[in-house]
Design goal:
This protein is of the alpha/beta class. The chain is built from 9 helices and 11 strands.
Length: 247
């Protein structure tokens, strides 16, 4: 069956001429974007209940832009002035660049990993005497605390925000040829919003091993998968599939 409509379970890319724009233009398909999950900040009161005093930390481990936003939001709510001496350990260049929204980059001690958390670990290891705060969501990859524990550093996790399932009730009677997922939470959202969901001719596209497992465990048929050596991005995987079925 041909593909004419695609729903991506993420916000629409803010950049012009994104890979999705090129896919739409080349294949003449309709692509809609709708976050199946969203992030909500917890209150400062909740952070205090976790027995977290921001004065006690000399370094912050930032794994995402959300962690940046919510650390500084909580600091403001607690009337905590972040000292200039604070060290920032950012998982990627994108996170470090985003940090400029809150601090004067060149005047701060900022250490940047390449992409994955494991690539940040050697930098943290060099500063083992710091007291690290890890602001995170209620869902955190097990590899992160495991890596910090193995380093033997003094670190504390703070839940500063939560991943929440979005209300998708307005999509109940809307049909798409392809649904695209990037996380197990997206699959969970689909099933919570539509417990009677039947896949039938709907194609499911998934990114990453954990999303593959969540979809398979939910009894869904996976038709499109990324990353693979041939299709390292989701748009490339969609392009390949569409080209084969829309002949």
């Amino acid at each position: 069956m041909k593909v004419k409509t695609i729903l991506v379970s993420q916000p629409e890319p803010k950049i012009e001429n994104s890979p999705y724009s090129r896919l739409i233009e080349k294949e003449k398909v309709k692509v809609d974007f709708r976050p199946f999950i969203h992030v909500e900040g917890v209150q400062a009161k909740s952070v205090r209940q976790q027995k977290i005093d921001l004065n006690n930390f000399t370094a912050i481990v930032l794994t995402s832009r959300n962690s940046v936003d919510h650390f500084f939001r909580i600091a403001e709510e607690m009337r905590f002035k972040v000292p200039d001496t604070m060290k920032y350990f950012c998982q990627s260049e994108a996170v470090a660049y985003y940090l400029q929204k809150y601090v004067v980059y060149r005047k701060r001690k900022i250490y940047v990993g390449k992409r994955t958390f494991n690539e940040l670990v050697p930098l943290i290891k060099k500063y083992k005497d710091e007291k690290f705060l890890l602001p995170s969501s209620d869902t955190l990859k097990a590899a992160v605390p495991q890596a910090l524990d193995e380093l033997g550093v003094d670190w504390t996790r703070g839940i500063f925000y939560k991943t929440v399932i979005s209300d998708l009730s307005d999509l109940r009677n809307v049909y798409y040829d392809v649904l695209v997922f990037f996380s197990p939470s997206g699959i969970e959202s689909l099933l919570k919003n539509f417990p009677d969901f039947e896949q039938n001719d709907t194609r499911i596209a998934v990114f990453g091993n954990s999303t593959v497992k969540a979809a398979t465990d939910a009894g869904l048929r996976i038709d499109i998968q990324a990353p693979t050596p041939e299709t390292p991005s989701m748009t490339m995987a969609l392009q390949k599939y569409i080209t084969s079925v829309n002949k």
